[in-house]
Amino acid sequence: MDRETVPVATVIDELEAAQELVATRDELLRTAVRCIEGANPRYDWVGIYLLEEDTLVLHSYVGRPTEHAEIPVGVGVCGAAIAEGRDMNVPDVRAIENYLACSLETRSELVILIQDRASERIFGQIDLDSDRADAFTAEDERALQRIADWLATLFV
Ligand code: SME
Asked: What is the pTM of this model?
């Protein structure tokens, strides 16, 4: 039986409540990862990578440990999203060559950029993995984009 899904507005409410209690961006990013992972049973791994010069550095995550704590821009789905300046929804990770396996169980992946839309400056990304193929819907993308936009305000 699946856990229930949580509306994106609830995740943002939780982040705003946390923002009143804790001051630091690091804590809010960790809270975001926890809330997002808890929001949908299809989200088996959720992490936030921050862009430091030409490298994505894993800030925090919930899920199985990964060896990809640092990913150069252009490498893997995560690095390609930065290089191409766009979100990535990969329905079947086994079908693409430029993929870095976090876990052999993972079947699909969604990468949403954390960026200031006005200046197009990219701060990092939310990375989600699912053990189900084709797990991420257009609704997931929109929901995660709203959360990413909220997180981007922590950087501007
Ligand atoms: N699959 C990602 C690497 C990150 S792990 O999934 C946590 C990629 O191809 O860039």
From this structure: 0.93
